[in-house]
Queue: 4 jobs
Job 1
Amino acid sequence: MSRQTILIGLDGATFAVLDPMMDSGVMPNLCGLVARGVRGDLISTTPAITPTAWTSLMTGCTPGRHGVMDFVRRDGRTMDIITSRDNACETIWSMVSRQGLRVCSLNFPLMHPPRPVNGYSIPGWVTSRWMRMYSYPKGIIKRLREEIGHDLKALGMSPGEEAKAIEGCSEEEYEDWIKLHIEKDRSWFEVLRHMMVNEPCDLTAVVFDGIDRLQHLCWTFLDPSSNVDGETEWHGKIRELCLQYFRQVDEIIGEIAKLAGPEANLFFASDHGFGPTKGVFYMNAWLNQNGYLKWKNGVEIDSAEDSPKIGVGHPFRYFTMLDWESTMAYVPSGSCSGVYIVRENIPEDQYENFRTELKEAILEKCVHPETGERMIERVSNREDKLPGPMSHLAPDLIVEPVDGIVFSVRASETLLHPLSDDETKGCHRAEGLFAASGPSIAQGKSLEPLAIEDVTPAILYSLGLPVPNDLEGRLVEEVFNPEMLVNQSPVIGEATHSPSDMTQPSAEATDAQGEEEDQREIAARLRALGYMD
Amino acid sequence: MPKPSQEQILAVLRDLLEELKEDWETVEITRDTMILGDLDFESIDAVALGGAIQDHYGEKLPFAKYFAKLSEQGVDDISVGDIVDFIHEHLQDGQEAAS
């Protein structure tokens, strides 16, 4: 039986922050829903970043299968911004659509350019002008503007404001910056409410991304172990604004639950968790100091006195800083948990020895300059850590820093910039959250940690659909109540389709003509991506 | 199909940019229109524009290298005409629009 299903994505949410919010009465709606349902940690991908993790959540597959490894994709000696073209797996929106159910997907990353769905798709992580171009069906944003009655510009990404979450801003900017996120979430909710009332779908899904941004910039004000209220008037004011943000998220959750009604199943998921940033490690500077990377002449070098910077906002700049003829290994972005080897500069028969040597050097020599503590928890070969057909897109070495250390790609005279208490920001952790509530859901149960790719099978089962036999995520039966499992035995269905399949509901989707067209489209796509001549 | 002329490419680009303009933006799009300065694009909008152009022509064009080179040269804005010239230089003969 198909049951209306709502997925509320809370980017970066963690019970470490939300439990105190629920306990103190800031989030009573979420508290009630979680208490009546199930909850557990949701373990993110490696790397635990937005595009990679949400893609796993949307496809039921790990990065080695879907191929989304970072915000950027290497393109020879430069890079490009990733888009939906980079996801090699079918999304849940497509799986649901082609089985005749309607979907509405709002603010998920990597949904542009859009693929047709049986319903609506408005992408996240794009500026407002591209959102209009890349929403499905075309014209939906114009229609929503007319029907809701304002320009909805707040829905779009503002790169400059996003960068402040990572790189920081002046105290004077905090207030407006938090209010911007309050407005953005409110705008997405207005769209969601309009769609739920006027275009109800079997699966409605939305991401609210302000939680991630606030936890980056305002971690000090949200960290359950810190008490900033009494420090200064400014601290108290910013803490209160942060709480106002979370109160609004909870009000939105309450309104969504009311709109959905008692017969709907509600799922909550985040793409990763959060914790305090303890220091910035300049990985490319380390590679430079150890002879693996050479900067071009004249590159600007950060001094030890500068505020730490990760290196976001100028996607091409950091590639142009490298002397590509002499560089053997580099980190392409602060969000990328890994080191790429420049294969042109390493003889093929020496690659494995070089990679092994580099792996050992990173593990043993990336240390705190004063205490000698290791900065790196683990280094793995990509095929071991991220196995799958798209593994070759991952960094040659997956480098996982110790808790609280983030990488910078900038040139720097110092390798480590520890953060003092008043500089502390937040950074990602693997432990995100999962919760569910509704008539099909078990009650009052704490779950063992789930993998992020387990969300897709749970949503499909809630909708009464079979779980494709090639998903890496598993159906976690403990999420559901025992009667549901008896009355609706889980069904394993046919494999997922190519993401290039048109997703109009059709029983004849795989006839010979369709397959031929699929092959042509796949070939065209691979050519466009440079994989085929 | 012969390679499109610069005028044909300009017409395609103009249509695309017109579609990207917000209702309240009235700037006229010519070869001299600056992408960031006149159209108020963010740099990431310009990168996305490269993707949309590739979708239109169904061909991979070296936009990433182009933007990297501009960044290296310290160029902080480009005109519509610059993009037209770049597309014309790199489109292969026999290219037919994919959309």
Job 2
Amino acid sequence: MALRTSKIRKAEFHSSGKEKAVMEYFEAKTVDEASRFLREHPEARVLAGGASLVVLLKNGLIRPSHLVNLKTIPGLNAIEQAEGCLRIGALNRHGDILSSPAIRKICPLLPEAASKIASPPIRNMGTIGGNLCHADPAADFPPSLIALGAKAKLVSDEGERTVPVEKLFVGYYETVLSPTEILAEISIPSLNRRSSGSYVTLDQVTNGVSIVGVAAVVGLADDGSCAFAGIGLGGVAPTPLKVERAKEILVGRKIRDADIECAAEEARTICNPTGNSFASAEYRREMVRVLTKRALRDALKRIGEGRTFSGE
Amino acid sequence: MKKRKIELNVNGEAHTISVPPQRTLLEVLREDLGLTGTKEGCSEGECGVCTVLLDGLPVRSCLLFAVDVRGRKVTTIEGVAQGQRLDPIQEAFIEQGAIQCGFCTPGMILSAKALLAHTSSPTEDEIRVAISGNLCRCTGYQKIVKAIRAASREAQRDVGQALR
């Protein structure tokens, strides 16, 4: 959403020039059909909510031969809880996630992340699948999904595979999806009743891009020791990141301040930010440390207050 | 370029139009249907002047392809008043002086309309979140927020009277 490129290209898009003549439109009825179409038309792009894609198109950053509309495929916008998992269809819009009673109850961290994405009208358009596949390193959903241990189901006409959300990204605006694969669903494993999470961001303006975003999820065992810990980072590397060592630093012990400091230092160490006009690389790195502490403390505080994932 | 025939319901009126795939809803509204109340500003989803309601929810008409919203219900600022009678939100904007240059006003009113449709008595915070995607460079927002509050009270009074 925050791409800032030449406005001249936009004029081209609007003009009745050649570009306009080449783009065709296809409404897929099944994932298989969409996948086959993408195989036959390698220059085609999929359209979900359009909130990011149309900006790319208008700025001339992509010039697809076809748009393949996924919204005409039934069943990609389900939200269901089954087999110890919360399954969220890729076509759920940010607003759907914000207002879903089931998600608000089982996993309020996701609505918290959704509320930070762009503005309300964009949240009524953009989808969780699109947010992930656009692979903006500063996107607001990935840190929370990574902290939760979420997985993405990728489907093509040749089969399906499941990848952890942190493995979905390979670089700036680049994912592991093959040209014929479609992200169909996100699944979030259920955590125990004494778990909670927090997503904290460094923002410049309301509705703006999160300069740095850190999500932390903590689950406690009956004796108060840490049974689950996940930390996801956004805006501080070419891709969203998982703090892999969070588990070994936090799980199995009663979390004390020193452990939080240690996890925050680990987050600072693994990130690889570049600077821009919003914040220098150094500042981002320091903010990762600060926000990781805040997110972990906030998650623990929420557990203390009974604001847990299945409770409320 | 293949044109597609689509049906659109705009402000309660059914339209059948032929559009190329990349024609935006904004272009269709302004250029094909002559509904110029919806404005074009940044044209990339940031400013909010192109906001319309799609099945009752505010969206950016500059980022939606018309083919993608076929069969759906679109409400523009032209569809807000009931005949000659302005919507209470429009009345409140006039009364509170919430309009200066007027360019953001259609989008503001539609965002407010969507808010009041499901939250009859919003808090100031809820109002500010609801219009957070609509930029205004004149008013400083205070009077807009006041107008939406006034309209919500107005709406409640109407409901109260109807119940009596």
Job 3
Amino acid sequence: MISVKLPTLLRAHVDGRSEVEGEGASLGELLDDLERHFPGLTDGLRDDRGLRRHVNVYVNGEDVRYTGGLDTSLGEGDTVSILPAVAGGSR
Amino acid sequence: MSEARFTEDQVLRYARHIFLPHIGAEGQGRLTEASALVIGAGGLGSPVAMYLAAAGVGRIGLLDFDSVDLTNLQRQLLHDTDDVGRPKVESGRDRLLDLNPTIEVTAHDTSLTSENAFEILEPYDLVVDGTDNFPVRYLVNDATQMLAKPLVYGSIYQFEGQASVFMPGRERPCYRCLFPEPPPPGSVPSCAEAGVLGVLPGIVGSIQATEAIKLITGIGEPLVGRLLLLDALTMEFRTVNLRWDPACPVCGEDPTVTELIDYDAFCGLAPGQPPPEAERAPEVAS
């Protein structure tokens, strides 16, 4: 099982949970697995080029943009963090 | 640098810093001589500016174009109920000078644009980003990189916060290395639309103030190359590693952005302006 930490923006798809579990040998497979269980969860994360540029995904704290993107391999016990850009602060 | 540089009142005012081995009279002297620009006199800017003023940062700039609104008071501690309707930078300057009348506070009652950014940022040693929209965040990032000034970043959303420090120069990641592109217009609701826990900017802004003080005094390990993520609901704090992107359009090996740009067109959204309903991406129905 791979632990997936979700930002608030995506929690509406998983009954408000901050963390879910999924399976897959690569990040792409994990996202497919999550999408099967939680339809709509990964809609905004990918496009034809792969991961969208305003979405960052970290595997055990390392940015997947430098480890193979959606092909980044995953193993039992890995922690995946999904992080979209947020801008709030002033108003 | 010796304690003799301080007046008797200053020695008392800053006693807890002067006694602190890491800071001492020398570090306090650096704070007194330092200057910082706080962009946004709101949720994040409030604790940042108040702690920097209390710490004796000698010259503080406050930038905001907005006026105090009743809905601000749940979290923006720079402002009082009596300040509703006043320009935020005036209300904020009063609060800071009440806290510490020995410092200098400059009120910039304006929006930051590609036209005025260099002129406004230039006189400050470091910049703290407490804005609420992507166009200004990209503008502040680009301007601080081009002026070679440290940028203390913070951002909040509902119960979640982010903080980091972006240093100028190669090999050190900037905001664009982290987020090369802003989200599609309207895909991320603002605090005004999505709500925010009132204490959250207090936590994140206090972290930004801590980082600013560390940068000024040269102590500890600032959040350079690291992004702090916090979730007030689970009260989990995590850091992820940031990398310098050699292809970054601003700080990369072959920069393509070499002058300031206003991102309103690029983001399709003016600062603070809610997007038309139809443009909202469906995936963020939070």
Job 4
Amino acid sequence: MRSAIVILYPRTPELPGAEDCDLDAFLAQYRRETTTLIWTGVVFGALVFHLTPILTVKIPWPAFGLSAKHADEHAHKIASTDLYLVRQLIFLVKLVAGLAWGQHPEVRRRMALPPLPADPGTWKTS
Amino acid sequence: MSPGEHIAYRSKDERDVDVEVDFVVVGSGAGGATAAVTLARGGATVALVEAGAWRDPEDYPSSAYGGMRDLMDDWGAQVTANRALWPVVQARTMGGTTVINSAICVRTPDDIFAQWVREHGLEDLRAPVLRAQDRVERELCVEEVPVAARGRSNLLAKRGGDALGFSDSHYMMRYAKGCEGSGQCIQGCRARRKQSTNLNYVPETRARGGIILSSAPVERVLLERGRAVGVTGRFVHPSTHAKGTRFVVRARRAVVVAASVTHSPVLLMRSGIKSPALGNYFRAHPGTGVFGCYDEPVDMNVGATQGWASTAFRVDPGLKLETLAIPPELVASRLSGGGTELMKRLTEYRHLAMWCHAVRAESTGTIRASFFGNPVVRYELDGADMLRFRKGMHLLARQHVAAGAKAVLPGISGMPYKLMANEVDKLAEAPLDPRRYIAILSHLFGGCVMGKDPKTSVVDASGRVHGVPGLVVADASVIPTNLGVNPQHTIMGLAATFAERLLDAPRAVV
């Protein structure tokens, strides 16, 4: 899943990529906190991402094994595919990765937004 | 009067909770909290039972991730079970969806009351509902979005709407006192400006002696000899989701269900309530956003999350137009594409304004319980509604251009990513397949609809379930038609009316 996310949100001169945004810690937290059903869906989405370069760049090789150029081309094409269910699965991966990417202080700084305080994760008990 | 107890999560090792009151209210959102406080003000003893945890603003998350985890029902992951998988968004927290919405206050339109009388035989609702809405507006400090909190996206929308001559183009009236424009409505207003019900009606219910149960999803309504006499369920830990001890809340006078459009019908089904209309006539305001790209930075997350609206098209073709700011976390997935092309698109973030529509759709769907007991929503727009949907997107695109946008991003699969200002009329021919769109069902109605005839409705004009004494429904699930405006005020007006009628009625009549 990590490699799919890194290909979908790569580092560019203008913006940090997902791998610059504490991705490993985020994924560990997400796995711990989300429901099994949602986690399964995201894992399945990442699997589909890796198994579909044959449909996009015509190379029978998983996305994690492609050259950087082909992987980037695959990421764009598979995220925009006409196959609805495939597009939805990739959307799910993009959504989860976007949660990690968009909340990072460096990304927010580039968007002229203040850093977010930590989520307290607390509730009223009395 | 001494304040009542707040009973939060209790583990399996602790003693079961057994409480008896006059009325038990299931759900603490717009309907449940309004019903509970009305009953408490009338001198009744009340227990309010909420499936989610009780979070005050200092407990609210800041990130979209935290919002999904802490405030949304099922992480906001519920989708319609049809060809197009459109999200069905509801909250699961004390205060319900009033915590995560934009606090938009719109009175029930007169034509809706007339339609309810004409098509559903619902007499005598207009006057009490409007009276209750008057009161709610005073109590929840309804005011127009302050000038300082409008933000550039809302100002541009007003400019675009005015330029196109929309007959109604206004800054919103909202349940928000001195909005600071922090752009955090969706994650809950940490600045305490938004008047969600966890900050007013729930604490007041407690202050009047009411008992509040949080993290307490109700499993069943208890029935004895055909009469509703209470509710039962198990506490669920807000973070680990571990099951806790059992609770039973007995109601001497009535059980009021306000668990949401998706959960109320399913709760009634699980409890053995039989009605041919139960779970039917589900309706919604499906909607989507159109981004405008502007030369100057818009910074849509500065200012009120939603601050401008137009009801000019509510009747024909059946749309409401609004602004909506979403954070970078969500824009990242909302923009199409991936890889370096997506990152290039994201560099435009500061120059984007997102405006959206809510379609007053006539299509209907159903709500049923899955094998695991959770709600399953089947709903898809028919051809006429998809035409409305497309027309709304075209209007929003034209509005962006009128406001000065150099291009728009329609977000429709199979169409160009970006349409320049002189190309927006291509949207008039956009595809009508719902799978082409990234849409959402935000305002939900039906499932336990009101009406005179028990064959086509679940409850009467006072929210009483046909043929089940002591059981009342008081949330958006009773609304039998599509309002075409934001429903919170209508839900509150109906819930207050139903609660007043409960107070007035002798037990045998409820």
